[in-house]
Structure formats: structure tokens, C-alpha cells
Amino acid sequence: MNRVKKTFYLLCLVFLLTGCMRTEQFNAKVSQELPENIQRVQTALDEYQKGTPVFPLKKAPANASLYQKYMIDFSKMKNVLSEPPATSFEKGGHYIYVIADPGKNPQVRVMDLRIIEQIRKLQAQVDAQLQDRKPLPKGEKVGQNLYLLDFKVLGENKEQISSPYSSQQKLPVLVDGKGKIYLDYRVEVMQKLEKEGKDPKEKDLRELLYRDSYFVPVFSPAIHYEKGDPVLRAD
């Protein structure tokens, strides 16, 4: 190998390592900023609610999932929050801030925008399949009117969607009888139940996931506890 090639490969290696270091530094910064940002928005929300019982929410999109109905509109909070947090979508971040459990105990949490984009892409593909009068890409039944998404029928490679609760855990993609896409968080729920070692009090087990986490289980169907197991129920 001549000197020019060696120099070229060394430069490539340096750029690669530098890129990895910057990515790790960025991820570390985000992981440090997110808890602080969520707490700051929670404090602002508590202050906001002293003046009005109405939540500062964006208009929900058509066919919005549960947590998309409660996306925070920071433009309505300017009197208690000078600007959106750095990790928010509004500031170029990866997270959409939402209000979880607005009926009982309003808690600020986030949805990962990267997961939302993956699901939007799959939903568009399923919609196109049905519009072309092709069969619903459903596989094994896993719950009431819920099936594993059959990527082969869809004509796509299997999409790997990482859980926001554990990056090593991949979430199964589901579809209901009308073609609506969901994600299956039952493995994460089971881990929570096993850790607590007792029957849950929550009627909807999705609460277990965001109770001690910064994330809501976006695109999850309702999860109920029946005969010792988490059971999925489509909206």
C-alpha cells in the first residue's frame, strides 16, 4: 500500500472515530438534558394550571393515538415558559412533549419522534395496499382484532423499531382489522410486573410504562391484565 492510500485510510479512520465520539457526546448530552427539560416543563405546567383548568394543547391530528391527543402547545405557555426545551421538536430535538394521565395526575412525558416517523411510513404503506384492494398484511392474531404485521405481504423488509424503554428490545409491529398500525409493548409491561411482583392496580397497564419513565408508549393499544397476563385491546 503506497503512502497516499495509507494517508487516505488514516484520515477516514480519524473521521469515523470523531463522528462516533460526537454521536456519543450528543446522546450523553440529550440523556442529561431530557430529565431537566421534562422537569422544567412540568413546573411550568403546574404554574399554568393555577390560572386555568384548560390544558395548553395542540390540535390533535385525525385518527390520533391516545398520547397524540395531548401534545403540549408551547406557544400557549409563554407566560410561564420563555421558550420550548432544547430537546423538543420545536427546537429541532427528537421529542414531542405530551401530557400523560390528564384526568387524574397530569404528568409531562415525551414521545420519540423517530418512532412516530417509522410508524407513519408503515401506515402509509398499509393504506396504499388497501387502496389498491390488496389483502390486509396481517399475520398471527395476538389480541382482540389485532395481528402481527406481515411484512412479506406488505412487500417490505421487516422494520426494526427500538423500544424507548430499552434500546435492545425491538417492538413487534401490529395491525388491526381496519389497517391501523400499533406497537406491542407487552414484553416491557411483563418486565415491570415481574419487577413489582404483585397484581397491578392500574386498569390500563400502559400507565406502568410512563409512571417511572420519561416516555409514553406511543401507538400502543390498551393493555389490560387478565388471568396473570397483559392482554391487548385495539381502540
From TrEMBL:
Residues 1-28 form the signal peptide. Keywords: Signal. This is Lipoprotein. It comes from Kroppenstedtia pulmonis.
